[in-house]
Write a structure and sequence with these properties.
By secondary structure, the protein is α+β, with helices and mostly antiparallel strands. Helices cover about 40% and strands about 15% of the residues. The chain is built from four helices and six strands; from the N terminus they run ββββααααββ. A two-stranded antiparallel ribbon has the order 1-2. A two-stranded antiparallel ribbon has the order 3-4. Strands 5-6 form a two-stranded antiparallel sheet. A hairpin with a 6-residue loop joins β3 and β4. α2 runs antiparallel to α4.
């Protein structure tokens, strides 16, 4: 366990902006919210005070991007997620430091995001149509014929 430097300066902080589509933009209202280190009450930065108009823009951007993502083969999507994990690893110390400052806790090691993304990336092209079991949860797959050409799978 280490104590994190209180200096919030970071190349990863983009004050007053939110990523919508491929652009960093301020909130439509121009409003912001201060991000405060709860351990010191020091202002770390400002984030946009997003409202309904910002949500509408983000949803529109997501719908616009969706066909390209949907039509990208699963192996390529997995590769893109792996590249994202590499970027996180390259900046892991700074991401961990900023999280400590924002949340107000000591450093407990590298953040887990890259590991989680690598798992998801590895699963991207492993679609098997099976239900994966989970402890203490009722999991089942029901297969039934619905025509001579196909089957229906319902996971519950």
């Amino acid at each position: 366990m280490t104590i994190t430097s209180a200096d919030p300066a970071s190349p990863l902080i983009i004050d007053d902006k939110q990523l919508i589509g491929d652009q960093w933009v301020p909130a439509c209202s121009g409003g912001t919210i201060d991000v405060i280190n709860p351990a010191t009450a020091q202002r770390l930065g400002r984030v946009p005070r997003a409202g309904n108009a910002d949500v509408d823009l983000a949803v529109s951007a997501a719908w616009e991007a969706f066909p390209g993502w949907r039509d990208t083969d699963a192996t390529t999507r997995g590769g893109l997620l792996s590249k994202w994990a590499e970027l996180i690893d390259a900046n892991a110390a700074e991401i961990g430091r900023l999280e400590c400052l924002e949340v107000g806790h000591p450093s407990w090691g590298p953040p887990p995001m890259a590991r989680i993304l690598r798992f998801v990336a590895g699963q991207a092209d492993k679609v098997s149509g099976r239900t994966m079991g989970a402890d203490a949860v009722l999991d089942y797959t029901q297969v039934k014929t619905v025509s001579m050409r196909g089957t229906e799978r319902a996971a519950g």
